[in-house]
Design brief:
Order of helices and strands: HHH
Shape: rod-shaped
Strand content: under 5%
Distance between the termini: 83 Å
Number of strands: 0
Structural class: mainly alpha
Length: about 140
């Protein structure tokens, strides 16, 4: 009985050619499925990063515009109050509006430099830098 069982089943550790072919087919299918799942995950990650970058850009834009408007309003208010107090209407109002506008532009430039440094630290490139042209050589 042991001899008949031994002849029907291959020796332990040895596979028949059919088993090897089946194993290779299943391994190939598994590799294909793993590849498709990894591609889906990568696409999902890129989509999430894209959405985060878009919302971050919108937040920076709103912040910069509100800083500009706030600086102009504060400058105008200060000029108006000083004009009313000193009786120099409308000169201090105009001067402080211009100072507020200048301060707003300066704040926007500072915020842009911070944003640029943040992006450069996350990425491996420089924003606003020229890239050498292959034709120049």
């Amino acid at each position: 009985m042991a001899d008949s069982d031994h002849g029907a089943h291959p020796v332990k550790g040895h596979l028949s050619p059919e088993d090897i072919a089946e194993f290779k087919r299943r391994a190939s299918e598994l590799g294909t499925r793993i590849g498709s799942v990894q591609a889906e995950k990568q696409a999902e990650i890129e989509d999430q990063q894209d959405r985060a970058n878009r919302s971050r850009g919108m937040a920076y834009g709103l912040r910069m515009s509100s800083e500009l408007v706030a600086a102009i309003l504060v400058g105008g208010f200060m000029g108006y109050v000083l004009d009313a107090w000193l009786g120099t209407r409308p000169w201090l109002f105009l001067v402080f509006i211009m100072l507020g506008f200048s301060a707003g532009i300066l704040n926007i430039l500072r915020a842009f430099k911070r944003m640029q440094a943040e992006i450069e630290s996350q990425k491996d490139f420089k924003l606003g830098q020229s890239v050498p042209d292959n034709d120049d050589q």
